[in-house]
Amino acid sequence: MSQILLINDFVSRGKIAGNMVDPVLSHAGHDVYFLPTALISHNFSLGNVAILDTNKYIKDCLNVWKKLDFNFDLVFIGYIENIEQKNIIVDYLKTLADQVLVIMDPIMGDDGSLYPGLGDEKIQIYKEILAYADIIIPNHTEASLLDLDNFDDLLEHNKKYVITSIEEDNKSYTLGISDKLHRVFYEKLDAQYAGTGDLFDGLFIKHYLETSDFNLSIEKTVEDMSKILSIQNEDFKDNISIAIEAILPKIEGAYNA
Fold first, then answer.
1. Is-contact 220 228, C-beta < 8 A?
2. Which residues pair with 186 in a beta bridge?
């Protein structure tokens, strides 16, 4: 069991953001601390969201945890609300021991553009925090916004990247970048569900902690994603979000493989 700090937003409607990553990792037996970066009414793609930033809470919480000597094996960073919050998180990351793994998903856009209501400030926030992450998991749009779309150049970085949702020559694949480019192809499901990127994050972290094998973790994650979304489409098609707690036991064999 690993101690995991999940720094991500809490969304009131739907099983997305931290509400998706947390159950995946908790189901796998990890001890998850969920530190919300914002309280958000619903997913950005619907527009017109209500947001409450949690900057003071984050700062106070990290200070209290430091006094209690809470330590983590892995820190995951998802949605970051504003520059002040970014600075608080960066100050915290600077205090971590070298062996703490930092994984980031720069949540800010899809389908070629930023989510509604987000501006260029969000791009700069994530560009500044890239330096502190060991593994970065953007979708193809976010990789382009962060100038991480020249994949061969990324091979020279002392980091690992997982680029999701790449479409090329009518094929869909996820790209792992470490010492080489590793493509994992998959068949797209004719359905769309909110929270799939968050689901990918949780599954990848779970597999990477179990195997320490970067490319194998991507392969297992893509395989599990296909299983979960197929079950969702068959058994929970009318749900507004992925019924993750109900589906995870159905793929238990994949977790014990």
1. no
2. 172
